[in-house]
Here is the input.
Amino acid sequence: MTRAALIAHGVGGRQDLPIPFALAVLGAALALVVSFLILGLAWKESRYRGDDSGLPLPEALTRAADSPWLRWTLRILGLAVAAYVTFAAVAGPDLATNPTAGVVYVLLWVGLVPASLLLGPVWRLVNPVRTVHLLLCRVLRLDPAAGVRRLPSWVGVWPAAGWLLAFTWLELVAPDRATTPVIRAWFAVFVGVSLVGAVAFGSRWFDRADPFEAYSTLVGRLSWLGRRRDGRLVARRPLENLDGLPARPGLTAAVAVLLGSTMYDSASASPWWARWTQESSIGATMAGTIGLLASAALVYATFAFAVWCAGLVAGIRSHADAFAHSVVPIAVGYVIAHYLTLFVLEGQHTLVLLADPLGTGANWFGLGDLTENRWLANQPTLVASLQVAAIVIGHILGIVSAHDRAVRLFPARRALVAQLPLLAVMVGYTVTGLLLLFAV
Amino acid sequence: MHSFRRPSAWLCTLVPLLLSYGLAGCGGDSGEAAEPAPASTTASLSTEPESPPTASASPSLPVIEIHIVDGEVHTDADRVEVASGTTTRLVVTSDVDDELHIHGADETAALVANVPTTLEFTISEPGTFDVETHDSGLLLVQLLVR
Here is the structure.
């Protein structure tokens, strides 16, 4: 009985307090004022050179990063951790003390954000499914990069957008989503489809379809660390890094899922949402599915419409994917605001749970001796300030990225006016994010 | 020529501004909560078939009263402000057997059909906590602990 309902939620018990109204207004006002300042005062010609830019780091560092021993160490580490968690998910008891849900939803999904901000697209280096495919190819003496067929270029990152939606559905909507059978079932399907995709289209499938790689790649584009076109590791400004994100088909959908799902998560924690789903006849799962899809679709539609309007004003047809990179900082800012305390508090808790994967009172690796530091939970004012700061900074970075892209793609005399629809839609996302933090 | 050349310079001024506003302007009591206490709770529980909750020993406690009828939740407010470290009394009457749970505070109590159940709890960590039922999966009220 107790079990069944602990998991009506995902992971985590407490949520953050709503942010003070004055702070929400201050954040919104700042976002608005700075947006117009950027529009009026920023550079009039594109300055970002994407993957051509950056301060080269010592060549030895690039060699070390690319060395087979480091690559294999990371792959084996990824496999070992995945095996350990799979062991807990399969052999451990399906109780709140099982670390699986915390590992998947907190350490992996949220933890990818700080890891990728720090070091770039790290998940592809440790991705256990990629490693399994690589090992299979080695055994069968096949080239892992070569598939049975080539992935058509129009496919782009649409498969990743689909899998991102599938994972956020598991995380936020699926019934009993914190139980091990549900998580096991999802990952069984995911790993199966991934391996089939990799056999069919080669290891490129992971670049284009794996939601964790896609997430890590998008967030990693806001890192200080990047790779030049010639492969050299460079230090570069995050927005210059972001500029190098390829505008593949499906990019808008992928970022719309990231932003929309986080907004849905926020909104669905409100008592009003709970009342509505409790009293509606369609049931919580159906209502959640509709809510999640609607949030992602709304972000996609509003952004695509804004870019279409911008193109209309500029007299140039432009596709939303050409500007979608500028939504990444907004989505990441909102993810930080929304998951900061969850990551710090539940992340620590999950590490402790990992000490005892089978629920036998074991203390493997001494993880059980960790004391959970709950200092941050007792700093609601600091947390609220960090939340608003993350959202406003994400907004500003988004506006600057969109500005640089607009002055590159649009004719000079129309470029400023053409940005107004983009600015409007971004202010809309930011104000919505602040409203959700204030009201929910 | 371009007075806004480097976004980073703006960020460097914005972040402290936001932080200092937040710390100075709307709070000030965060220093007292510096003690790194876990989300500790204490609770006492009583199911009272005969005496109504208003007749019990300490009537000065804040009381949250909730009725569940035909799967619908009846309360005065969806959200209730609760002072951190203050004992609050929750009185829940459900028309079916169920289990009451304060999520994040790990408080549970059995609900017997049509019998008011009183759960006294103290949460000494700020945050938003959901009060819910397990079997019917209803959100009863959200506690805003400050």
